[in-house]
Amino acid sequence: MKxxxxxxxxxxxxxxxxxxxxxxxxxxxxxxxxxxSNAMEKCQEDDNVRxxxxxxxxxxxxxAGADINEFKGKSPSEIMRFSELGHGALRLLETMEKPAxxxxxxxxxxxxxxxxxxxxVRFASEKARFGQPEILLGLIPGWGGTQRLAxxxxxxxxxxxxxxxxxxxxxxxxxVGLVNRVFPAEQVMEETKKFAQKLAGMPPFTTKMxxxxxxYGYDMALDNAISLEIQCMSQCFSxxxxxxxxxxxxxxxxxxxxxx
Length: 260
Ligand code: CO8
Hints:
17% strand, binds octanoyl-coenzyme A, 10 strands, 2-enoyl-CoA Hydratase, Chain A, domain 1
């Protein structure tokens, strides 16, 4: 598939996906959502990719939401398809076996915030702004905002943002647990790559088990979630990397994980 709206770079086992529609602050139209979906499938299949970073082109926006130009004249069933398309892409991102990090370099509004929330970790520029402004257009979030935002920052704060459409700063986003780390604008990409490199050096099957147990255990009753954790943890003992990690600790040396 040829991409017209995203750029994909792969270096040192890290795929960097850049939303690239700077004239509309990287707003997501249907074609971009299809490209994101395809890129997620490719990243999942490619053993050379250990970690995925998502960011926006330019210094103004990560993604300023869905492309509002596409809303004009749409029927509820057409919008339902658009919503399902976005959900499909974000679910691929969220459940991919590899870590995904959002490097939020500017506005992450509406669908942009929703994309970042489907990532495992969010790093932000101190210039970034976050919000779910859909209500100002007469709609509600449609790519997971009503669900993932409440899970990440709590139901009261999620309602506050979704019902007011207000934007919050990166610092406030950090305080409420919406982003993991905040950096000066010129450092956010470098710091994200550094962290991605660290994750890329971890044993991939173990990373996959950690992500699986957290993602699927989160909505389970605690007893079921604990049972899932036991299953996932014991699976790690089938890997060469587990033997290496334990041996390296006992021999007081750095582990050399081989990804098996
Ligand atoms: N869609 C289309 N164009 C956009 C968008 C967008 N989301 N955001 C910005 N643009 C365009 C502007 O129209 C403008 O174009 P032009 O230069 O041709 O006038 C250009 O980008 C630059 O934007 P501004 O001049 O507005 O820049 P400012 O710095 O003044 O403001 C803002 C920046 C605050 C980000 C402002 O552009 C803004 O409020 N944008 C809209 C943000 C928004 O409402 N996002 C939510 C969209 S709805 C959504 O995301 C729902 C997701 C799930 C959908 C599921 C189906 C229902």
